[in-house]
Amino acid sequence: xxxxxxxxxxxxxxxxxxxxxxxxxKEVKDVIEKTIKVVERKSSKGFVVFIILLxxxxxxxxxxxxxxxxxxxxxxxxxLTSISNFEGxxxxxxxxxxxxxxxxxxxxxxxxxxxxxxxxxxxxxxxxEGKTGFFIMAPYSEKDIPVDLTIYNVNTLWAGGKWIWNxxxxxxxxxxxxxxxxxxxxxxxxxxxx
Length: 194
Prior knowledge:
Elements: E1 2-3, E2 10-11, H1 25-68, E3 71-72, H2 76-84, E4 87-90, E5 94-105, E6 111-122, E7 125-132, E8 135-137, E9 141-152, H3 153-169, E10 175-182, E11 187-193
Antiparallel strand pairs: 1-2, 3-5, 4-5, 5-9, 6-7, 6-8, 6-10, 7-9, 10-11
């Protein structure tokens, strides 16, 4: 049994027009069915987009976690490779250098299109900062990653003078390096090495 959408009169199955007001019953039913199909299609597209977005956001979080687990590898071979790839430029205020550092990815997560940034400080004085290029790294692997380093000469001399003064006076200042996962849009602090 169906009802007329205009007057509400009940009709038998198979009737095409309302016996009371003359409204076409079949066309109304077809329009309703087509509308339901369009809504269902749009709902499933929205669900698929939501799932894809959820996967992307989840992987970005895993990628940032994997970058935070990277470990520098200091072996004779890695140091020799780093020295052989060293190129520098010295000016009065700063020294810039390009080299490579070997990192190990100890996680099960492949690192896709990430980079690491860092700054080294003595007290409140920033001595150096640098960042790797964007890199891709397989799980459970080691890789030589290009690094750009900037050393601030004046700040380094100032920090050296403060260190000598602190040794004479018995004081101490914090020596630390902040390490960031840099994903291009923003960076997240992943460690502080002291």
